[in-house]
Amino acid sequence: MAGLKQPSDRSHFLLPDLGEGLVEAELIRWLVKPGDSVKESQPMAEMQTDKALVEVPSPWAGTISELCGKDGDIIKVASVLVRYVPQVAEIPSLGCVSGQVAVGVADANADQGTVVGSMSGTLNVGSRFARRPDEDTQVKTPGKSLATPAVRRVAKELAIDINRVDGTGRGGRVTASDVASFAEGDTLSTAPSTGGVAARAKSPPQPLPPVDKDGVAQRIPFRGVRRKIAEALARSVQTAVHFTAVDEADVTALDAKRREYSRVIGEKLSMLPFVMVAVCRALRTFPNLNANVDDANSEILIKGVINLGVAVDTPNGLMVPVIRDADRRSPVELGTAIRTLAAKCRDRTISREESLGGTFTISNVGSYGGMFATPIINYPEVAILAAGRSRERVLVKDGKFYAGLVLPLSISCDHRVVDGAEAVRFLSEVIRLLEHPAEFTK
Asked: Fewer CB within 10 A of the end CB, N or C, for the chain?
């Protein structure tokens, strides 16, 4: 977890980075209320990141005076999350930013330290703080504004050149308020170092179309996992150039092999682990599909490891845990990993680390009766395979009819990275392996 400087006076607590590079999290619910006395490391709030539900504990013991936000709010990293009753003398309030989006950063003038800890489902925040020189020491260079990394991150999110913002903090330092004021002033931003083209002023948001409220039976807040899913899918379809190819595999022999495995291990083994093994083998032959796109740096990152994401349906929405080094695991090991991660997804105990680092995703739409699909890529990955429900069908081989089992397969790829022919060749290799299970089940 990235470090974040906290006030030394302990009058308020700033939301730390709940994972590598996160800039915000959604407040799901408070676990405390104003007036409560809390112990060090006592959970105060449940927050939803882009990957997991985490608890945010109190970094020190004290009495809560104010909670900065309400259920459903999007809270920015470095915003004031909780204020405490001053223990010695009254301390000027930094105030809270609440509402649908909260933007704020640490007071750079305070004597501050660093929050340290780790996140594995539950965030651990240490009670002792150590100074980080790289964040605490700021050198004014020609043409560059003085600002903390957190403030610079806020400016970057708002597409503002921070060097154009006049600082009102100590020594001319730029604060979050300065950035917000600059943004609200609809000011043009030009990068002086390159003499670049002035960016267009922020245009007012377009009004949303009216929605007919007649006959509404239930209102469900659009928040939590469902909101994160929507944001991720919207980002994917707005960035990746999707196309889909479909085909079928004769898995009659594979089904016999699957039943044999199930008898040996004494429990039912689904078709999915075998599909995963075949996908891993095919990815070694077609490495361009085992990749991420780094759009920020205009690079395609071909991965040397195969970490398979598996779409899991939960009461709270779709989640995609990741099985690392999937190509090194047997069908039985993959089956066990799938069950373990799926259970964690459903009871909300999965950690953010268990949902990161995917290089390719598989969605088992057939578990609910579907055949073909047009799956949306789990961006920044470049491909996703959907496996439908296998069905008995009369097939022909060598001029003879026989009763066989057919598995529908659909693959969606990012056309910026993967050509149509390559996608079809990859799918054909997966099918070839599935139809000859002896090659990968030895």
From this structure: C
